[in-house]
Specification:
By secondary structure, the protein is of the alpha+beta class. It has helices spanning 17-25, 34-47, 49-55, 106-113, 119-124, 134-145, 151-156, 163-230, 235-243, and strands at 3-4, 63-67, 72-77, 84-89, 100-104, 129-133. It has a domain at 3-149: SCP2 sterol-binding domain (Nonspecific Lipid-transfer Protein, Chain A), CATH 3.30.1050.10. The chain has 9 helices and 6 strands. A hairpin with a 4-residue loop joins β2 (63-67) and β3 (72-77).
Length: 244
């Protein structure tokens, strides 16, 4: 197995409805999410048995999935005879040392699960960080990519006659979420844009000062070279001595 050094911490979580929901969920004990996570994993297992078969090669590997914009994490044991996905505290204390830790915003993690985002691009943009056994993470990723998972469809599949009202509710929620995300982006820009302008102006001033300082250093070196050539024992003095 290949181990990697501890990665740099990810960028701050994006300002989004998920982050605000995370603040509201802080008082909620993670254990209350257990039944929903069990239902979700059961639905994925039932609709994608080929994926679960590929995950059996991971054996007793444990993955700590850390959505950076939520106050809790998830511990995944995908290779167990009965795969387990359970909520844990945000710091992951009390679970020992997992095989790997995967950190990213929640929506990015969902997009990775469903194959809509490139994990390599997220990694190099620092929106995704990985610690631990990268080979195990690669095995997990390849297995999930092979299944073309659609989380919403997997969760709705067992609802039967409740499928249509559930889809309507999800559509309405999606519209509200999208509008809230746009509003928060506008709010972020309203605060960040003035700071970015000031930062840009300061960077331009620093570049100008640096150019002036470089030119001054160059001029000082030239003056020293001229004075050194004219000093006793310098190049000019040696030239006169040669004529004599």
């Amino acid at each position: 197995m290949s181990e990697t050094p501890r990665q740099a911490p990810p960028l701050p979580p994006p300002l989004s409805p998920v982050l605000l929901a995370g603040f509201a969920l802080r008082p909620v004990p993670p254990a209350l999410l257990g039944p929903f996570l069990k239902l979700a994993l059961s639905a994925v297992s039932r609709r994608h048995p080929d994926v679960m078969a590929r995950l059996e090669t991971l054996g007793d590997a444990e993955f700590l999935i850390d959505p950076v914009d939520l106050p809790f994490s998830f511990l995944l044991r995908p290779g167990a005879p009965s795969p387990v996905l359970e909520p844990v505290g945000g710091d992951g204390e009390g679970i020992g040392r997992p095989t790997a830790i995967i950190r990213a915003p929640l929506l990015a993690l969902i997009d990775l699960l469903e194959g809509r985002l490139d994990g390599d691009a997220l990694f190099f943009s620092r929106d995704l960080t990985i610690e631990g056994d990268t080979e195990a993470v690669l095995t997990l990723r390849n297995a999930l990519d092979s299944g073309e998972i659609d989380l919403i469809e997997d969760l709705l599949s067992p609802l039967g006659p409740l499928d249509r009202p559930a889809r309507w509710a999800l559509t309405a929620f999606g519209a509200v979420f999208t509008r809230a995300a746009r509003d928060l982006e506008t709010l972020r820009d309203a605060f960040v844009a003035p700071v970015a302008r000031r930062s840009g102006a300061q960077a331009a001033e620093i570049r100008e000062l640096d150019e002036r300082l470089t030119a001054l250093h160059r001029r000082v070196r030239q003056v020293r070279q001229v004075h050194g050539a004219r000093a006793p024992g310098g190049g000019v003095a040696k030239a006169h001595a040669g004529k004599g």
